Amino acid sequence: MANFVPKPNTGRVWPNKYRKENEKAPHYKGNAMIEGVGMRDMAMWVNYVEGTKDVKDVAVKFSDYKPKDANGNGTNDEVPF
What are the strands, taking DSSP E only, across the chain? Predict the structure, then answer.
């Protein structure tokens, strides 16, 4: 995932391995390149029809891109003072 650079107006998501720890976490995470805006983090939640495995809809959220370090942790460019 770290080396993926999407083409303009495209994106890619991967299963979120941390979903097992937090049921409110997105099902999928990834990034997208939105023309005129640049790289964005993407999160997706799959909503099911109650009591079934039928997909009702998929919710998508875009947020500011935060690069990850070698360990997969978010980096912070802000000065801590």
Answer: 10-15, 28-34, 38-48, 55-64
